[in-house]
Amino acid sequence: MKFKFACVVLVISIFLVSCAAPVTRNIQIDNRAMRIEEQKQMEIALLSLIKNERRLDSVAYSLFAGAASMCGNKTRFVSGIQAANIYLFHEDMRPAAKRLYGMGDHPGVLYVSRNSPAEKSGIQIGDLILSINGKPVPAGKSAVTDFGAMFNKVSRHSGKVKIRARRKGKNLTFVLRPEKACDYGYGVVNHDMVNAFADGKNIFVTVGMMRFVDDDNELALVVSHELAHNVMEHMSKKRRNSMFGSIFDVIAGGYGVNTGGLFGNIGANVYSKEFEAEADYVGLYVMAQSGQKIDQAPYFWRRMAAANPGGIKTNHSASHPATPQRFLALEKTVHEVERKKKLGRPLKPEMKKNH
Ligand SMILES: [Zn+2]
Questions:
Q1: Share of the chain above pLDDT 90, in %
Q2: How far away, in angstroms, is 35 Cα from ligand 1 center?
Q3: Average pLDDT over residues 46-67
Q4: Which of 181, 211, 238 is the last residue of a domain?
């Protein structure tokens, strides 16, 4: 009897063991290899983040510069040098930023914007920025912001700016002719949803949206729509209208900051239908002023609506109405802009009589 009981227990325990764990041999990994693997993954994550930031910049830079005349006094001088130092990266990503891009205390060139004064001057990725018109550029936590402010200040007084930079142990001088651009920031948000936002100070495009757009012209349509929200001051008007507190205010800047949870909580209809219509309208003028083609705009927004049914609250078409009115208005705007181009008229949005 005792023997029988033992057998049953044995059978049950074998059954449990075989269900609870894999039966093949474990592969042993040592801690050092594990740490190296972690770093490898961090490098891949950082490379893809910077790839997206560069792609957004290659589209946004020229739109922000092209629309400068529409931004009134909200403009600043830009060079097209996208500077960074180690403090701009999330702590976890700093070792990878050091290894991949040589990031340290001092601001260096992370990338150069397409068709910018910096590109024309010959300054390159990896160059360490030493001084602007003889004034040393500081190192440390606020160095990148300080560099932007210094460049803007110097540019206001002079049509040419001299930048000293170090490349492979040699000091070089570059002469740049600064240009004006709308004074807003832009960045990629590491989130899969297909969306983009404007908070009055910046515009944000999600990784999901970057994947959704077929080409740079479609990305430019998204960026110019969001820029138009800022140009027309929709966020401050909305606050005035509804006392809606901005969740965007708490968004942290920098690379590798996880804003996923925050963006996930954003409901539909951040802006009213009227503001959306205005962003569509003004956005196409932003495109046209920057020399971008706009004929694909109605098709793109239709494609957006078809791919993302409005029932899903956090997608772009839910916060951007998919009404027939919207697409017909877009088509009319395309015709209006094309007509002005043909007649050589200024590419300015038509304002209501009392504005
Ligand atoms: Zn919008």
A1: 63
A2: 43
A3: 95
A4: 181
Secondary structure of residue 175 in the 3-state scheme: strand
Ligand 1 geometric centre to CA of 354 (Å): 24
Q: For residue 156, how many other CB atoms are within 10 A of its CB? A: 10
Phi, psi values for residue 307, rounded to 5°: -80, -20
Helix (H, G, I), strand (E, B) or coil at 1: coil
CA 72 – ligand 1 centroid, Å: 21
Nearest alpha-carbon partner for 194 in 214, 213, 209, 211: 209
Asked if the model's pLDDT at residue 210 lies above 90, the reply is yes
Boundaries of domain holding 125: 76-181
Distance CA(181)–CA(57), nearest Å, equals: 13
When divided into structural domains, the chain yields a total of 2
Whether 71 maps to a domain, the answer reads no
* Cβ 95 vs Cβ 39: under 8 Å: yes
Give me ligand 1 centre to Cα 5, in Å: 72
Would you call 81 helix, strand, or coil by DSSP? strand
Residue 224 Cα to ligand 1 midpoint, Å, equals 10
CA of 280 to the centre of ligand 1 (A): 7
Whichever domain contains 100, its CATH number is 2.30.42.10
Asked whether the beta carbons of 267 and 320 are under 8 A apart, the reply is no
Residue-wise pLDDT tens digits, 67-104: 999 999 999 999 999 999 999 998 889 999 999 999 99
Is the model's pLDDT at 307 over the cut of 70? yes
Contacts of 352 (CB under 8 A, 6+ apart): none
Residue by residue, what is the 3-state secondary structure of 84-147? ECHHHECHHHHHHHHHHHCCCCCCEEEEECCCCHHHHHCCCCCCEEEEECCEECCCCCCHHHHH
Structure tokens at 63: 């739109």
CA–centroid distance, 226 to ligand 1, in Å, is 6
